[in-house]
Write a structure and sequence with these properties.
This protein is mainly beta. It is 14% helix and 51% strand. Strands 1, 2, 3, 4, 5, 6, 7, 8, 9, 10, 11, 12, 13 and 14 form a 14-stranded antiparallel beta sheet that branches. A hairpin with a 4-residue loop joins β6 (91-102) and β7.
Length: 184
Amino acid sequence: MVLPIGALVLMSTLFLLARDIDPSDALPFAELDLTERARDLQLTEPRVSGRSLDGTAFRLVADTARPDPRNARRLTIDGLRLDLDGAGGDMARITATTGVIDTAGRTLSLRGDVRIATGTGLVVTTGRLDGNLRRLRLTAPGAVAARGPFGDVEAGGMVLQDGTGGARLRFTGGVDLLYVPPLP
């Protein structure tokens, strides 16, 4: 009997001694972001997965995606990550700052700090990557730099595409290779 009465006394002192709440002490909200999100359609952390006709599984994740007001099948994306798992066991992760995806044609165009990391340890960087996920084919039409276990590559362009026996990475447009032989 003493414990319930003691608990009641403690609870009542909390309410009697509580101070008034000042609404201006509340945590500030970023009103600009809230009004912008209310005005514009935006997806947060969208995820898309599928398989190309050549058998490569892909999984695309982005920080945000906004539909084009004139074409709802075109999305502008920020903070993209695209994982590729080839039928032959080939794996790659592609990241980019921003890009545009056409969901109807399964095409994408990535811009800004595009990075491709393969399962074999090769890391390729470029400023632009265009491609098609229906039949896996990704093209870097500009300068490409790559670093891997075999050495370094600089090229004027690059093509990554599914082929017989797995994905193939081909450097184009004047290729410079600095080969570093393995240590014995």
